[in-house]
Amino acid sequence: MNPSSFSKLPFLLKPFLLSLLLSIFFLVFLATQSPLLRLKTPLHTTTNSPSDGGGLRIRRGYTSYNAYIERQLNKTLNPKLRKIWTTRDWDRKIKVFARVFQSLKQRNLISNDSKALSIGARVGQEVAALKTVGVSDAVGIDLVPYPPLVMKGDFHAQPFRNQTFDFEFSNVFDHALYPWKFVGEIERTLKPGGVCVLHVAVTRQTDKFSANDLFSVQPLLELFKESELLEVRKVDAFGLDTEVVFRKKIKDYSY
């Protein structure tokens, strides 16, 4: 409505229309400030967009951290999956992980004396595999414990003191809602000189329970602020295609 049209309106209608327009503007403003609306926007994005050939994208849809945890538990507590993990898949996965860890031993990235952690270990095949190759001081964490191999723990806030482990392994980076916290906790609990090995997917899509999508290893280089990249290798490990190895830097306090 232009000013000339407005001036031609009956006098009694003008206050009503002004009030209506102000109400509409106010409602639009409130909608843009809604906490629910803000929570549904991407929580964090690093580097480039997927179309640029790189980047890390947080998946939309989680209205709260509790909603995220509940969705992750839907998979972890699924009775059919847990039966498969502890029966049909048990020996097969231990053999595959044992080959992975044996290779890491041959490359001097882990030893029998290492204190090791498996992050997001579910029922503990990785922990069992570590013990199989001689790394006896090994434990896993997951939202649901599976004693004695796996204790309860959230990888966004590991239940361990600083500089606890010599070696940390995970193949659940894609399940991290806050990747920067996931990596920050690894660097916090790794000893200086300690090694972290991640199995990630960068050339294929991960499952429906994933909370982020990784499109190159570049975001990992940015997230691991206290570590140096040692290796990037192709692997074929339960839907994941890339092995990335970091070593936590040893700070020089001599100056």
From TrEMBL:
Domain Methyltransferase type: 117-198
Official protein name in the record: Methyltransferase type 11 domain-containing protein
PANTHER family, alphabetized: F21J9.14, METHYLTRANSFERASE TYPE 11 DOMAIN-CONTAINING PROTEIN
Organism domain of life: Eukaryota
Species this chain originates from: Hibiscus sabdariffa (roselle)
Pfam families attached to this UniProt entry: Methyltransf_11
CDD domains, sorted: AdoMet_MTases
